[in-house]
Amino acid sequence: MIQTELFNSSPLDLLSFERQGIRNGYRLIAGVDEAGRGPLAGPVVAAAVILPAGLRLNGVNDSKKLSPDKRERLFDVIMDQALSVGIGMGSPELIDEINILQATRFAMLEAVGQLAPQPDYILIDGISTIDSPLSQKIIKKGDALSLSIAAASIIAKVTRDRLMRKLDQIHPGYGFSGHKGYGSALHLQAIRRLGPCPIHRLTFGGVKEHVGLSS
């Protein structure tokens, strides 16, 4: 069963979707979100998080609204308090092969598959389902509406940011530690100067025009 919910403003209660799932008979509810759909380089990273029923995590919200330091602190809290956390990735090569939406769905499915125990209900941020028999609810802007999804957004964002800092050391000159692969002016200048490196998404505008330049 797949349901979609669209909201224009955040409810005060970030556990309303989780409680609704419990009322409908579900017991293990996972929030799922991704980080890195828009960048020109690096993987798309998805996370799935099952929180204990009724748990409230002060400060947990959409990862984009939090400072890097706060995300790092909350990452440790979530990893400590969650019943289970799964992380999946879609590589730049996969993104170029099957497109960013399908690579995101792949990463989300991988993240859910890592959960132990497995959930019986999934709350997904975004507009698309994943290829899973589990019951799913799609919530647009869900990272600001559901605590489970917000927790997943923090795990995905921190995981990807840490990875991009490591990749900056492997592929210097592009500034990945700063912009994390997004299309900043400095990043675009580096691509024009150096050409794409192995972690660039070769089908993305801003990169594909420079394929063939040596890096």
Folded structure, characterized:
- The longest helix is centred in the last third of the chain and has 24 residues, at 147-170.
- A six-stranded mixed beta sheet has the order 1-6-5-2-3-4.
- The protein is built from seven helices and six strands.
- It has a single domain (2-168), classed as 2-Layer Sandwich (Nucleotidyltransferase, domain 5), CATH 3.30.420.10.
- With 215 residues, it is an alpha/beta fold.
- Helix 3 packs across helix 4 (100-113).
- It is 38% helix and 16% strand.
SS element count, helices: 7
Q: Report mean pLDDT, rounded to a whole number.
A: 91
Kindly report the name of the CATH homologous superfamily: Ribonuclease H-like superfamily/Ribonuclease H
Q: Globular, elongated, flat, extended or rod-shaped: what is the shape?
A: elongated
Listing every helix as H and every strand as E from the N terminus to the C terminus, the arrangement reads EHEEHEHHEEHHH
What is the first-to-last residue Cα distance? 48 Å
The gyration radius over C-alpha positions equals 18 Å
What structural class results from the helix and strand content?
Answer: alpha/beta
Largest sheet: number of strands, sense, barrel closure: 6 strands, mixed
What's the structural domain tally? 1
- CATH topology title: Nucleotidyltransferase, domain 5
Widest sheet: strand ordering: 1-6-5-2-3-4
* CATH C-level label: Alpha Beta
| Model regions low in confidence, pLDDT < 50 over at least 5 residues | 2-11
Q: What is the number of E strands?
A: 6
